[in-house]
Write a structure and sequence with these properties.
Blueprint (H helix, E strand, L loop, with lengths): L2 H16 L5 E2 L5 E6 L2 E8 L4 E7 L5 E6 H8 L4 H16 L1 H13 L5
Antiparallel strand pairs: 1-2, 2-3, 3-4, 4-5
């Protein structure tokens, strides 16, 4: 187990909320991937929507590390379930274009750029 997992997930949560990560869909409906340099992070939602697994891939596509939300909780003492659920919803909204459409509508109605 690694404290780096906690750091990685914290950055993924923050950058996803900012909209500064380019998450991509995979052939698996409940798995998304973000490429960082030559490496990648996959996140999969499983179970009844309350389990999350992260897979770290190197530049050759090999899984070099993997962990789940239960291990994160054991390391940090914090329950990440709600935050990861929110991140998953946000990823889906970003990929579907929902966030941009809402920003455009709000901007058109109020003259503001973004909320």
């Amino acid at each position: 187990m690694s404290n780096k997992w906690v750091g990685l997930v914290s950055v993924l949560l923050a950058k996803t909320q900012e909209g500064s990560l380019s998450w991509q869909e995979t052939s698996d409906e409940d798995t998304f991937v973000v490429v960082v340099g030559s490496n990648a992070v996959e996140v999969e939602q499983g179970g009844f929507g309350d389990e999350f697994e992260f897979r770290i891939r190197d530049g050759n596509g090999r899984i070099v590390d993997k962990f789940n939300d239960v291990e994160l909780t054991n390391i940090s003492g914090n329950d990440y379930s709600d935050q990861l659920q929110q991140m998953f919803v946000l990823i889906k909204r970003q990929l579907s274009g929902t966030e941009k459409v809402l920003d455009d509508i709000i901007s058109g109605l109020t003259g503001r750029i973004k909320f």
